[in-house]
Amino acid sequence: MANLIVFMFFCSLAFVVVVSDDIYPYFSKIQMPPGVTGPESAAFDAAGGGPYVSVADGRILKWNYIFNVFVEFAYTAPNRNKRLCDRTTDPNLGPICGRPLGLSFNYATGFLYIVDAYFGFLVVGPLGGLAIQIANSADGAPLKFANGVDVDQKTGIVYFQHSSETYNLWNTTQPGFIGDSTGRFLKFDPKTKHVTVLLSGLAGGGGPAVNFDSSFVIVPEFSAKRLHKFWLSGPKANTAEILINLPGNPNKVKRSETQGEFWVAVSVTTQQPTFTTPMGLRINGVGEVLESLSLPEEYYCNKSISVVQEHNSALFIGSRVTDFLGVLKKKP
Ligand SMILES: *[C@@H]1O[C@H](CO)[C@@H](O)[C@H](O)[C@H]1NC(C)=O
Ligand SMILES: *[C@@H]1O[C@H](CO)[C@@H](O)[C@H](O)[C@H]1NC(C)=O
Predict the structure, then answer these.
(1) Source organism's superkingdom (predicted)?
(2) Nearest ligand to the C-alpha of residue 3?
(3) How many A from CA of 220 to the centre of ligand 2?
(4) Nearest ligand to the C-alpha of residue 165?
(5) Which of 52, 90, 110, 117 meets the CB 3.0–4.6 Å disulfide criterion with 169?
(6) Which numbered ligand comes closest to the C-alpha of 177?
(7) Which residue, judged by its Cα, is nearest atom 13 of ligand 1?
(8) From the CA of 163, how far away is ligand 1's center (Å)?
(9) For the segment 84-115, what is each residue's pLDDT rounded down to a tens digit?
(10) Residue 7 near ligand 2, beta carbon < 6 Å
(11) C-alpha dihedral (110, 73, 63, 148), degrees to nearest 10
């Protein structure tokens, strides 16, 4: 009984601005296949196919809505061994099996851009299979722990981030791990094939999101608990400013279906005892919080989330620590 009371006490400690249970009252789960965990990312292709999820065993799976199953779509590790890797949750196998953490389609070409914690920045064609590595370093420093990517659908330019030049995902799971400030925000121009560093010295990474009109990119800085606004055009082009300080660690930022708005996956962790409250924040381009989403406590008690992806008015909630993708739906 004591455990139950503690559980209920902590799980009702939510940091909320506006509780939107009324707006998104329907929660369902898309279960991962048996043994598969950690749908960190959720993406949809130009035809609305998906969700495509990137999971802990190194694969990208695609939801088949006719048979209601996930099928294998792509993978990132060139020497990935299916017998060893499929369904593994062993973080030590990341360098062999791969660990894709971020996905973004170019709707015009059908190419899926992928960032992987061990294999950097990659792309795969519409038929899937082994992704081709585009870059695993930039300006002479490795793209360790690449974790977020976004395609500007107007220009085809791809923006991505990695958390560090020194530590990888595996290091962060080790006791006593201390991060650093060697994260970077980069761009890839498919016309010139050049990778350019736009921001460096970031304390951790996350997933960037470019505004619908290509005027700026929102760049999360995970450990510093804030979002930057990197201007692409106008008088402040190629400069960044702090957009908003957050109560917790932001992972991916994704465009909302409403132009000029974004969903940010934030995990608020307090110490003694260690406890994480996940939040989905809807923000605009001037850093105003428009909505703060509370997730069903029975599924997200003390769990971090990594992405809130809006699609057809529903929200797909990805997490590195669940065996399902959460789906929140509005009242019809
Ligand atoms: C990450 O782990 C590797 C392998 O144990 C180790 O050699 C390296 O020093 C670690 N890096 C950091 C920054 O902790
Ligand atoms: C929350 O999870 C962390 C590990 O992820 C664990 O160390 C901590 O004890 C948990 N907190 C509670 C109150 O259960």
Answers:
(1) Eukaryota
(2) 2
(3) 25
(4) 1
(5) 117
(6) 1
(7) 167
(8) 14
(9) 999 999 999 999 999 999 999 999 999 999 99
(10) no
(11) -70
Helices marked H in 72-200 — which ranges?
82-85, 94-97, 169-172
**pLDDT tens per residue across span 246-286:** 999 999 999 999 999 999 999 999 988 889 999 999 999 99
Our answer on whether the CB atom of 171 is closer than 6 Å to any ligand 1 atom is yes
pTM: 0.94
Tell me how far the alpha carbon of residue 145 lies from the centroid of ligand 1, in angstroms.
Answer: 12
The structure tokens 């201007």 sit at: 231
Give CA–CA dist 308/218, Å, rounded: 15
Cα distance between residue 254 and residue 230, in whole Å: 15
Cα 233 from Cα 179, distance rounded (Å): 32
Query: In whole angstroms, what is the distance from residue 315 CA to residue 30 CA?
Result: 12
Nearest Cα residue to 102 out of 205, 248, 215, 226:
205
172 lines ligand 1 (CB under 6 A): no
Closest Cα to atom 4 of ligand 2: 274
Strands 69-75 and 129-130: parallel
